[in-house]
Amino acid sequence: MxxxxxxxxxxxxxxMEIGDLSYxxxxxxxxxVKPPFxxxxxxxxxxxxxxRSLLLVVTTGFIIGLVLTLQTRPTLIxxxxxxxxxxxxxxxxxREIGPVITALICSGRIASGFGAELGSMKVTEQIDAMExxxxxxxxxxxxxxxxxxxLMLPLLVIFGDLIALYGSSLxxxxxxxxxxxxYFNKVFEALSYGDLIPATIKSFFxxxxxxxxxxxxxxxxxxxxxxxxIAANTAVVMASLLLFVVDFIAVxxxxxxYEL
Amino acid sequence: METKEKxxxxxxxxxxxxxxKIKGLCKSFGDNQVLKGFNMELRKGENLVVMGKSGxxxxxxxxxxxxxxxxxxxxxxxxxxxxxxxxxxxxxxxRSDIGFLFQGSALYDSMxxxxxxxxxxxxxxxxxxxxxxxxxxxxxxxxxxxxxxxxDLMPSExxxxxxxxxxxxxxxxxxxxxxxxxxxxSGLDPITSKEIIELMRSIQKKYGTSALIITHDVDCARVxxxxxxxxxxxxxxxEGTYAELVTSQDPNVNAFFKx
Lengths: 260, 259
Ligand SMILES: Nc1ncnc2c1ncn2[C@@H]1O[C@H](COP(=O)(O)OP(=O)(O)O)[C@@H](O)[C@H]1O
Ligand SMILES: [Mg+2]
What we know:
The complex is a heterodimer of chains A (260) and B (259). Chain A contains eight helices and no strands. Chain A is mainly alpha-helical and 260 residues long. Chain A is 88% helix and 0% strand. With 259 residues, chain B is α/β, with parallel strands linked by helices. Chain B has one domain (47-69, 86-246): P-loop containing nucleotide triphosphate hydrolases (Rossmann fold, 3-Layer(aba) Sandwich), CATH 3.40.50. In chain B, strand 1 and strand 2 (32-43) form a beta hairpin. In chain B, helix 4 (113-123) runs parallel beside helix 6 (160-172), helix 5 packs across helix 6 and helix 6 (160-172) packs parallel to helix 7. The radius of gyration of chain B is 18 Å and the shape is globular. The interface between A and B is medium-sized, with 14 and 21 residues. Adenosine-5'-diphosphate binds next to strand 2 and helix 2 of chain B. Chain B: It holds the Pfam family ABC_tran.
């Protein structure tokens, strides 16, 4: 009885949260197109997002490239297909692994950062102070952050992809005596616009989801400092979950396009 | 003596322009009825203290005055404008005439002191038509609070008392006609509190502003108030000068002044 009640409550809460988030997103679109625009703050946020995540993205990208290549090598050799390594790694990194891993790393970094920043600004009344100073805090704080995440994530993904491919080519260079030039030539031969464009579009959506959930959780932080930690934490959880939902939808949609 | 009688009787119209008028202000959060018909008037040039226990709704009341919260019912008029019937532009213009000192200073912690002070000038440029260099204004505001040397520091490098003073400088940078203080001395030691109160008085003298001070600090109220309102149970329970209230026989009033 109690469990059933709990489940019903949880489900209700979940849908209410989704509703709230959609409302927040609608507010973003409404405010984003209305002047005045906060260009300077947008640039600052873009820099912050890139600066915070670059090292992480580089490190994880490099390791993923190495590991993926090392682990698939024996199997490919068994099938006599090791020369297909660049094709296989290239396509899997660019299409799926690069965007998803980068986005997950960034959700840990960016969404939690946004959640904590906005949360503490809310709790310490800085957001109220902005409002009475005649600056629209939603525009100044939220719109710039969501835009920055949306714009920067594809760049970070491309960067992560390149580093991962570099890691993979290192393995091939040392273990298979494949030159970098040959490796990258084969990668670019294997890739078509049909791989690059959906992946890039997907990355924009990933960035949007990360920025949106981070800001949403931060902006609606409750009273008291405990709220800040909760905001940062739940922002990461929610962003990571939503990333996979978006990924599923993206793969589904691009699959339809392939068949056309 | 005559004016005092009038104040006690609540006859405001006779003694000059009314800056803030609140009538029957109600606000609740869910089942929590915080304000239940609060009335108040603040006249030009006056220092009015509203005193109430922690959690009695003082901050809620002051936030209703600048449109940070909207009341469930009641009439709120600030500087002659009905605050709940203003569009965004008119509201922002009105806000540029109001200085607000927040309870915890609320300095923007990602900006330097100078940027903090320049922030209100970003949108309220109308007030500064023709002024391109904001530095002298920032310097003047900081000199008023004795902190001109902190211009390039970050808020995290300041002590609690310095933060409060910078926040005060930020509140007066637009030369407001009215300043709202939300617990100006909370979280400060007695000596720093005294300094802040002195600053508030000197600013009032220099610029001739009206001030609404919200506090639960009796010493602060004694020094600065010309008139006081006690906020009890969501209403304006008692009204009068400090001297009148401190000698009151009412137990609810007495509770505020007992040490
Ligand atoms: N945004 C809010 N949401 C829900 N409850 C609130 C909110 N703001 C204030 N309250 C409640 O209103 C009451 C008065 O709060 P407040 O005005 O901050 O008290 P104080 O007199 O100490 O400034 C408290 O019980 C508080 O829990
Ligand atoms: Mg308060």
